[in-house]
Every structure is written in C-alpha cells, then in structure tokens.
C-alpha cells in the first residue's frame, strides 16, 4: 500500500513469512515523523542502499491500524498538496502533484 501524508510517503508491505508489516520510505525523516507523531511502536529505522526504498522499519498490523486512525482524525486541511507544501516544502508538494497528474487520466 502506498501512503501519502502531509509528513511523508510510505510503501507498506507484508513480506512472505513475516508476521509484521514493513514500512518503507525513501527518506528516513519520513519514518521518523511517522514514529514521533503517530506510531511510537515503529521499530528503529534501518538503511540499505541499492533498493527502491532504502529506509525501512517494522510494526504490527494493529499498531499501524491504530496509527492510521489517528492520522485520519488529524485531517484538518482543505487541500492536500497545499498542506504538504506548508509541512514539507514546495519540492515535495510538486512531486506529489506529479503523482496526482499521472493518476488523473484514470477516470
């Protein structure tokens, strides 16, 4: 699952044989923000080069589900891309905007 938030971008998967979820990110600060703001149960970040998502951490399904609920309750903005720009800068908002543009043609 891809998860775009005002504080980071994540790819969340369950690897074969694992009970926990792996939360992957391209930027370690995104995992730090997730851990600090919503998911204190998230394991320490490990970094491994040569992969799409060099920064990784793990958590239980239940912990992530609770964190997603808290993230949802904190939505207080009218425009996601503007909120990303305010929280993470225009560069990140522009990247998210390009994802939006790529998906726009799905209608």
Number of strands: 5
Report the oligomer.
Answer: single chain
What is the percent of helical residues? 40-55%
Strand order of the largest sheet: 1-2-3-5-4
Number of helices: 4
Name the structural class.
alpha+beta
Tell me, rounded to a whole number, the average pLDDT: 97
N-to-C order of helices and strands: EEEHEEHHH
Question: What's the structural domain tally?
Answer: 2
Terminal CA distance reads 21 Å
Strand content: 15-25%
Question: Judging from the principal axes of the Cα atoms, what is the shape?
Answer: globular
Low-pLDDT segments, ≥5 res: none
Radius of gyration: 14 Å
What kind of sheet is the major sheet? Answer: 5 strands, antiparallel
Question: TL;DR of this structure?
Answer:
By secondary structure, this protein is an alpha+beta fold.
Descriptive notes:
With 107 residues, this protein is an alpha+beta fold. It contains 4 helices and 5 strands, in the order βββαββααα. It has a 5-stranded antiparallel β-sheet with strand order 1-2-3-5-4. β2 (8-13) and β3 form a beta hairpin. α3 (80-88) runs antiparallel to α4 (90-104). It starts with a strand and ends with a helix.
Topology of this protein?
Elements: E1 2-5, E2 8-13, E3 21-25, H1 28-37, E4 46-47, E5 55-59, H2 61-73, H3 80-88, H4 90-104
Antiparallel strand pairs: 1-2, 2-3, 3-5, 4-5
Helix pairs in contact: 3-4
């Amino acid at each position: 699952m891809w998860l775009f938030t005002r504080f980071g971008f994540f790819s969340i998967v369950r690897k074969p044989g694992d009970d926990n979820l792996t939360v992957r990110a391209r930027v370690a600060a995104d995992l730090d923000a997730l851990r600090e703001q919503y998911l204190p149960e998230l394991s320490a970040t490990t970094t491994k080069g040569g992969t799409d998502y060099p920064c990784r951490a793990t958590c239980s399904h239940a912990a992530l589900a609770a964190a997603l609920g808290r993230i949802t309750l904190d939505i207080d903005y009218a425009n996601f891309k503007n909120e990303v720009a305010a929280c993470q800068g225009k560069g990140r908002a522009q990247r998210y905007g390009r994802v939006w543009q790529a998906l726009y043609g799905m209608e």
